[in-house]
Amino acid sequence: MFRVTSLFHLFSFLCLFNACLISSSRVKTVFLFGDSILDAGNNAYDKNCTIQANFAPYGQDFFHRPTGRFTNGRTVADFIAKELGVDLQKPYLEIEMLLKNGVLKEYPANGINFASAGSGVLRQTNEILGVTPLQVQLQQFETLVTQSKIDKETIREALYVFESALNDVFSYFFPTGANLPAPNEFVRQMLSEFTQVIQHIYDLGARRIAIFGLGPVGCIPARLILPNGSTEYCNACVNEMVMDYNIGLVNLVNELPARYDGVVPVYADVFDVVELFLTYPQQYGKFNNLLIWFNETLGACCGSGTQRGMSQCGTGQYELCKDPNQYIFWDFFHPTEHAYNLIFRSMWNGDISKIRPMNLKTLVNMPLPPRKK
Q: Cβ distance 337 to 61 under 8 Å?
């Protein structure tokens, strides 16, 4: 009886200790900006936007209903919230609706998701489809700041997560007949726009900034709808542009602390993490305490046509795999919840080969540098 009682008290203590660890983070508020990799459903609340995931089978494996997220469950944004011990951040447009209807009385303390699927760092990317460009997402946040809807200390202590440019890169290679600049000039334009966004968010009070690099866009199943798309190989030209853009993000993160007082930025190397999944798929797989490795690396779980990469999941005569956890890609553009979880874990606890100069766990628990007088 003594042993059982002692073990019970030990177990209770460990549970309380772990709960304290989760709740001890300095960060309890997260603001997210970008595209479908982070979008929690903003597009679903915009009737003028044609890029949607508000239909089955999106969301089937966690929410058991479509939420507007472009995957079968949660995204990296959701796993960050879970690790911080806060509610999942709602889409900005949903919050505005709930406030207007009186369901909410104030903006939620856990943060807001401004990301819009299909958007890019360039205003013109998919703008005709009704998406919310990154610059407009920032304007939405600025309005809340200038109207004092969010207090200054919350703004300072919050985590700001950015992921964008996937759609800019893909659109560059998709045949539209547009007169486009040379690849290096296009990358320069994207980096110039994104640098201005970061400067603006800093001016509004942001200090903890996590910049997620692009994954290997040339490997997504939608590569098959590009000219000379291969079923067996990634698109090298697309990935070359991605790597050039990511190098620019690394340089930006390295320069920010010297340029702006008190800012603490990190760069998440999504490209290298996903490339490891593609190269060594059977070395990655623990999910929900089960060992499930990737059996399919270049095709989608849900979609139609060759490798289910020719059209969007849930539209037309689409096919659906039996076990999404065995796939890196859920649909023709986006990872599965399983892949998102592994990406998140690499960024939360990872070393400098995955995220630098520190991981997300360190970033959200460290005190910010004191303000200069």
A: yes
Q: Tell me, what DSSP letter sits at residue 123?
A: T
Q: What is the DSSP letter of 302?
A: E
Looking at residue 133, its amino acid is P
Q: What is the pLDDT of residues 267-296, one digit of tens each?
A: 999 999 999 999 888 776 555 555 557 888
Sign of the Cα pseudo-torsion (122, 125, 128, 132, in order): negative
Taking the C-alpha atoms of residue 174 and residue 103, their distance in angstroms, rounded to an integer, is 43
List residues with catalytic annotation: 36, 331, 334
Question: Are 294 and 327 in contact, with CB atoms under 8 Å apart?
Answer: yes
Give the pLDDT mean for 325-345. 96
The pTM assigned to this predicted structure is: 0.91
CB 86 within 8 A of CB 26: no
Furthest C-alpha separation in the chain: 79
- Write down the CATH number for the domain with range 27-271+351-365: 3.40.50.1110
User: Cβ neighbours of residue 291 under 8 Å, at least 6 residues apart?
Assistant: 285
Q: Where along the chain do its domains lie? A: 27-271+351-365
Count CA within 13 A, CB hemisphere, residue 89.
Answer: 33
The number of angstroms, rounded, from the C-alpha of 304 to the middle of its chain's C-alpha atoms is 25
Candidates 327, 320, 324, 273; CA nearest to 295 is 327
Q: Are strands 319-320 and 302-303 parallel, antiparallel or unpaired?
A: antiparallel
Token pair of 227 as six digits? 């000219």
Give Cβ neighbours of residue 136 (< 8 Å, ≥ 6 apart): none
Give CA–CA dist 321/224, Å, rounded. 19
Three-class secondary structure of residue 287 per DSSP = strand
Q: Are 352 and 147 in contact (CB under 8 A)?
A: no
Q: What angle do CA 144, 145, 149 make, to 5 degrees?
A: 55
CA distance 367 to 373: 17
